[in-house]
Amino acid sequence: MDKITAKELKYLFMKGAENLLKHKDEINALNVFPVPDGDTGSNMSSTLLEGCKYLESVEDERADKIIEAIRNGTLMGARGNSGVILSQIFRGFTDYLKGKTEITIEDFAYAFKSAKEVAYGAVMKPVEGTILTAIRYLAENVDYLIDSSDFKEFFEKVLEVLDKAVKDTPSMLKKLKEAGVVDAGAKGLYYIAEGFYKYIQGEKEIDLNIKTTTMPVEEINIIPEDLKFQYCTELIIKAYETLEADKEEELRNFLYEIGDSVVFFVQDSVIKLHVHTNNPGSVIEKFLTVGELMKVKIDNMKMQHEHFVSKEVEQEKKKIGIVAVSPGEGISRILKDLGVDQIVFGGQTMNPSTADLKAAVESVNAENVFVFPNNSNIILAAKQVAETVKDKAVYVVESKNVQECIAALIRNIPDEEPEKLFEVFKEAILEVVTISITRAVRNAKLKGEKIKKDEYLIFLNNDFSVHDMDFRIALEKTFEKIEDIEDREIVTAIIGKDATAVEIDIFESFISNIYPDLELETYEGGQAHYPFLILIE
Fold it and tell me: Distance between CA atoms of 172 and 128, rounded to whole angstroms?
C-alpha cells in the first residue's frame, strides 16, 4: 500500500486511539514524577477519543470532512499538557493534508514536519525530553521516512525513530533519569503510531472500550517535591472576535507571568490554554474579557503528587486532619500555618464540586477529617462528602467565610477528641465578628437599599450591613454596629489583590485613631473580589 484514502485515514486514527487505550495505565504510571499533571495516558486518550467521536459522526466520508473531524475533535478533547500538545500535533498534521483526497507516503512524512512546527509554536518554552522531542525526531527524519517502498515499511521506520526518541528522553530531562522512567507523552505517541502500523498490517477490528493495560510497568522512583505552582488550569474559550496579534501576545505573556508549563493557541476563533499557576481564578477572569468559557478544568497537582507519594511511603494515621477551601494564595498559606492538611481552591465565583472536596478528604491520612467550606454555597457539597466517605469520620464545620475558619483553627487542639473539638470550632465561629468588604459591580437593590455601582458593600457576620461611596464612612458605620467592640482585642485584616494603597492606609489609620486599644494584624490574602476580609476577636 503506497496511498491512504480518507476512509482509511479515519480507521488508521481510530486504531491509534485503540492502541493508546491499551497502554493507558502504563502511560499514567510513567507520569508520577516529577509532577502528576493529571494523568498523561488518560489525557492523551481523552484527546483521541473525542477525535474518534467526531469521526464517527461524519456521514460524508470525504477527505476534508475526515481531516476536519480529527482536527476539531482532538482540539475539543484535549486535556492536560500532553493532551493539548497532542491536539496541536494533529492540528499541524491535518493542516498539511488539507485539500488532499489521497495521502501518499511523502504527504504523511511532511505532515509530521508540519505537526512539529505547530506543536512547538503552541508552547512558550518548549522542553526537550517530552512528546515534543518525539515529533521533532520524526520531522528531522523526513528524508529517511520518505525512502520507503510502502506504508508498511514507512511505519516500521516511524516506530524505529520514535523508539529512539523515547529512549533518549531521560538523557534530556534530569528528573526523568532520576526517576528511572522515559517520558510518558513520548511513549504515548509511540503507541499511537504503533496503532497506525497495526492497521496497515491488517488489524482492522477496533475496540474503544478497553480498560486494562497490556504490559507491566517497572518500579518507578517517586520523589516528594515542593511544587512552585499548584493548579493545572485548562480553558477553552470562544473568542468574541478575532484576536489581533498584539492582544494574542498580551494574553500569552500574561500566562507566562503567572505560571509555567504554558500552552496557548488560537484555532478558528477558539482559544485553548494550559498553564500551571497558583491563581486559576485570575486566568479565568483575564480570558473572560476576550471570550466565552466553553470548558474549564482545574486540577490540584500538589494533592495529586502527595497522593502518589503516599502510596510509596506508608504513614501512621493521625487522629485529626483538616481540609479547607481557600480563595487566595496568601490565605492558603495562612491556613496551612494553622494546621490545614489539604487546601481546595474555590470561593465566591468558583465553588469546588463534591468530587473536589471528596478527593481532598480522602487524601488526608487521618482517622477524623474536619472540612471548612468557608462559603455558604459550598456547605451542601461538603455535607455530601461526609455522607459518601466511609473509611474515616468527616465533620463539616459550617464556616461561611474564611475569617470564621481562621478563628476556629486558632483554637485547634490536635489531640482533642473529635466530637469535643467540633464543638470548640462551632463555638469559635459564633464568637468571632467577621467583616467582608467588596464593591458593587452594578446598580441594584439589596434588602430594600438602592445600591450604586462602585459603592463599598460591607457584610457584617455574613449579613449585608453598609453601603457607601466613602470607604472611611463605610467603616465607621460598620464598626458602630458592633455592640461589644470595646471588649474586643485583635483586628486581623486579610488584604485582597484588588485593595489599593489608599484603601489600606485609610483602614489602618481608622483603626489606630478610632480604636487604638485594638491590636491590628494584616496579612496578604491574594483573594479576588473582596479587598478586605476582617475578623475581630
Answer: 6
CATH 1.20.140 fits 433-536, yes or no: no
Three-state secondary structure string covering 492-530: EEEECCCCCHHHHHHHHHHHHHHCCCCEEEEEECCCCCC
The pLDDT value recorded for residue 181 is 80
pTM: 0.51
296: β partners: 235
| Mean pLDDT score across all residues of the chain | 86
CA angle 66, 72, 76 (to 5 degrees): 140
Task: Give the fold, CATH level 3, of 3-200.
Answer: 1.25.40
Cis bond before residue 34 (omega within 30° of 0): yes
Q: What is the pLDDT of residue 227?
A: 60
pLDDT tens-digit series, residues 414-451: 888 999 999 999 999 999 999 999 998 888 877 788 98
Q: Distance (Å, rounded) from C-alpha 531 to C-alpha 285?
A: 16
Domain 315-431 is of which CATH architecture?
3-Layer(aba) Sandwich (3.40)
**270, 75 Cβ separation under 8 angstroms:** yes
- Looking at residue 132, its amino acid is L
